[in-house]
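Hi Q.,

Before the meeting this afternoon, I wanted you to have the magnesium ion prediction in hand. No need to reply - just skim if you have a minute. The sequence and ligand are here:
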Amino acid sequence: MLPAYLPNSVAAVFGGGTPIDGGRNFSDGRRIFGDGKTFRGLVIGITAGIGIGLLQIWCSGAYGLENLPVHTYLSVSLLATGALLGDLCKSFFKRRLGRERGAKWPIADMYDFVAGALLLTLLVYPSWILANITLSVLIFILVLSPVLHRTVNIIGYYLGVKEVPW
Ligand code: CTP
Ligand code: MG
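Predicted structure with the ligand bound:
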């Protein structure tokens, strides 16, 4: 899941600049995505996710980690892209509910990237999901993801990278 986990953190560190919605509002008068979703965050985040995935592909060949899920160029690209698209979708609905950028939205903030990554991969590359995301792996992901997400965000908050610790 590293290709799905890394993009968020990298976007938080290196994101910023022009927002994806160009500052525009939706028909309800609120921002479409908000200032927290930028082109730079999206592109650098996805690139980092794919990069770590390529490293994993290389490592599994070099160190014989054959019993880990077997990544392909397509699986790492879909996981990384899906993670930040999930995050973007989350922000769209978060704005519709009137929650401001950075406001807390517990379950959604913790699972947006997991849901986005797994759903996009399931849609485009179902055979990879069926072969690798077994029920026990899925349960492991659902338990581990919020813990990792919260831990990394607290670290990011104390490092001054994130404005809020969630
Ligand atoms: N970020 C970015 N581009 C993205 C995603 C994230 O630039 N596509 C950066 C932004 O600086 C953002 C930070 O990463 O503030 C943390 O991301 P996240 O917690 O997802 O955004 P929030 O600011 O909390 O905004 P939202 O309320 O929309 O989730
Ligand atoms: Mg947030």
